[in-house]
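User: I'm putting together notes for a lab meeting next week and I want to include a structural view of one of the chains we've been expressing. I don't have a solved structure, so I'd like a prediction I can at least talk through. The sequence is below, exactly as it appears in our construct file.
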Amino acid sequence: MEAESEPYVRLATLRTLHRVVADLNAARSLAGTLQAVVEGAVHGLGFDAAAVSLVRPDGDLVVAAVWELEESAMGGPSVLLGQVGSRESWDRLLGVSDHWGTLRFLPYDRGWAVASDIPRWIGDGPMPVYANDWHPADGLLAPMYSAGGDLLGVLSVDRPRSGKRPGAWTREALEMFSLQASIAIGNARLRAEMQRALARLEKEQQALRASEESFRQAFEYAPSGMAITELHGAGRGQLTRVNDALCRLLGRPRAVLRQQSFADLVHPDDRALLERTSAESGRAELRLSRRDGGYQWVCLRNSIVADAAEGPSFLLTHVEDIEDRKRHELQLAHRASHDALTGLPNSAELKARLGRRLCNEPQTVGAVAGAAAGLGEGPYQQSYGFPADSYGAHSAYDGLDGTDPLSGPVHHYGTAEGYALPATVPGGPLGYGEHVHAVVPADHGAGGDVWSGPFRSGGAAVAEKGLAVLFCDLDGFKSINDRFGHNAGDAVLVEVARRLSQAVRDGDTVARLGGDEFVVLADGIGREEAKDLAHRLRNAIIPPMRIDGRAMRVGVSLGVGWAGCGMSIEEVLHTADERMYDEKRARGGSVRGARGERSHRRAG
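Assistant: Thanks for the context. Below is the predicted structure for the 604-residue chain, given as structure tokens.
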């Protein structure tokens, strides 16, 4: 159960992390951004206290913001506000700390490295009992750097609420959060500079030339892309001025960009989002085309520059590169929904895909009979009104670098928000509105057989094609694990996953439930076709495979069940599981004893 719930725990952490990152972007000032950083570390990452030490112009670091979950009777870390530590002492402290990726961990027994001028507060937490318990004198630091590699400040966190030293998942979340915090702090400083420049343009008419020069430098040398757009006249919407950072980001020369608008550059799927983004304080995350034909994820922030006499003059747009953040989001989502060993969808993703296909209302016989005349002999996606790739094995989650690890190229992102969500199910001859009912195919055999589905009797609907659920259980896998070790067993599972993925049709789902159990979902398939598919799967698995120079062979027991609307997900999987055991008994194979005595872990 713990392994099955892990993806949901990670998704919950990811949603919390997204919320606190959104708070960073919503801050209107540098002080607000710093306060959002410490509050986000406490409320979003599970620490009791956090502080940000910001680099001053002279190089020393000053404690600029602190936050504690519950205020201490002794004043807590708030007593550190305004205290200054020398840059030399901070550099020495970061150098002697343990490197956890980009993080720095200072165990309590290395407290001698903390110089006297570094602000420090030690709480009264419990003393550790085990080696990985958090000690009150432990310290975890997250240095924050600018795009140019200069130190912006250090985020310090203390007292994980779990009482343990942070594990790999919390460290990765803290690394990602500190990266976004450094971007937010840099952008806050940039916005502050831009606002001062714009204020001078409005208020200091007598110093217009000096203000224009200050604005030009802030614009041209900004580390992020900047653009000025016409608001009036025939050239409305056209880019009249762009900086070098935007040219580098999109790979386009300045002269070409000045002949275009954001509407010319935006991805077709994001055009409506761009049009809805307001000019004043508008913000949108969308894709802009690059010169090489690809698309770049950016965050656009708009500000209107107004003339004191004539009103709004032009639109200033800040273009921030968020490609890495979108990729991180995709990676985290992929880890939560896919098996780490084989790369296949895991049990949670399998159930989610089944849930998207099934509804609670079974299709009636009359409705099927009335619609059957319109099925014809056309391809599956036309006759069923359901895209073959809407929950298939080749979704964008299956490849982190644009390639499905088992099948080939896929798209990086499927929507304007960077996630490959299921395609909208169009209406079809069997559907009500946008949903197409899954109906168990008719069994024309006399008396039925082991392939029969649960909807065959009782007046429920039948059809010629439906959603087949093939339950695959490897035979002989335990002996490989016992004889050659888990590394060999893992290699066998990876090879089996590859063979299954090559044997199915495009659009079918191959998922790993856990241990040596796999499930294949095949929609728009008849009973004879399902038997043929099961035969192909068996023939794909049984040939010997060479692992570490040894020839190894496993068998497979297959059971074919059918999913229909009105069935629960658990009922669908249980039915296919029972068919697998019927087939195993029919072949005279070992059934491994009682249901609760299987030699491998069930993740479903």
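A couple of points you could mention at the meeting. Confidence is low (pLDDT under 50) at residues 1-5, 365-433, 446-461, 593-604. The first strand starts at residue 47 and ends at 55.

User: Perfect, that's what I needed.
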